[in-house]
Specification:
4-stranded antiparallel beta sheet; mainly beta; 119 residues; 7-stranded mixed beta sheet
Length: 119
């Protein structure tokens, strides 16, 4: 079965860094667009960053210049390097894999990892 397993969350100080990883199994990883989403308490889930199967990236305005998404197809893993963290980055971060073939959407989610930014 498909599994997306996130790791690397935890507590960071404002201005600090964390690196999230999402290891995928059960899918043809290189053919999927991979994304990181986050949901803070009382807020809707929002897209943080996405990387296409071809390596094109896009970011939420709130994280541009601070976060970097990357992927290693040999390891079936997508990363989110988070620098200059702010308290408002506190949220549960979830990994997403998606592709559409012949109008059929294949969409998978990880369980999420907590990121807390606090002094």
């Amino acid at each position: 079965q498909v599994q997306l397993v996130e790791s690397g969350g935890g507590l960071a100080q404002p201005g600090g860094s964390l690196r999230l990883s999402c290891a995928a199994s059960g899918i043809s990883f290189s053919t999927y667009s991979m994304g990181w989403y986050r949901q803070a308490p009382g807020k809707q889930r929002e897209l943080v960053a996405r990387i296409s199967s071809g390596g094109m990236t896009n970011y939420a305005d709130s994280v541009k210049g601070r976060f970097t998404i990357s992927r290693d197809n040999a390891k079936n893993t997508v990363y989110l390097q988070m620098n200059s963290l702010k308290p408002e980055d506190t949220a549960v971060y979830s990994c997403n894999a998606i592709k559409v073939i012949n109008n059929v959407e294949y969409n998978y989610w990880g369980q999420g990892t907590q990121v807390t930014v606090s002094s």
